[in-house]
Amino acid sequence: MRFSTGFSATLCCCTAATAIMFTAGRCLSWARSAPDSGEVVYQQYCAGCHDHPGPRTPARSALERLSVARILHTLDFGIMMSIAYPLERRQREAVAKFLGTPGGDSRPSPSAFCSSREFA
What we know:
The protein is mostly helical. The protein folds into two domains: 1-34; 38-99, Cytochrome Bc1 Complex, Chain D, domain 2. The chain is built from six helices and no strands.
């Protein structure tokens, strides 16, 4: 069976386009599944401010004393939410793990509260 030149060219282009889309889709899915380095995320999105702190910007050394949970909560819901919104959840988790100390937040000591309050 012989095809016309126009049909053969169209078929060739469609096959090539399908192959390119398939390959690009596999590359993109690999990139999405690759783990993020907290250090890379920090350098790309955070270091510009936290490595050169100002009056309202804590230094990296101060962030390193916070727990992972505290940093992640601040990125998700706190003061940094508007800055961190372009980051995917896995990137925010990676940078929190890179900077923070393991474990959750400790509760404040009773002396941090008014003496008229009682704690169990």
